[in-house]
Amino acid sequence: MQLKPNGMDQGSLHQYLLALATRALSTPALATAAAATIAVGSTFTYSIAGKLYSKASGTLTLTTAVSTGASEFRKCRIEIDAAGTYSVIPGTIAAAQALAAVPMKSGADKATVGWFEVPASFTGGTTNTNVAGFAVYSGDPDLGDSSILGAVHRGIEQRVLTS
Question: Taking the model in full, what pTM does it have?
Answer without folding.
Answer: 0.79
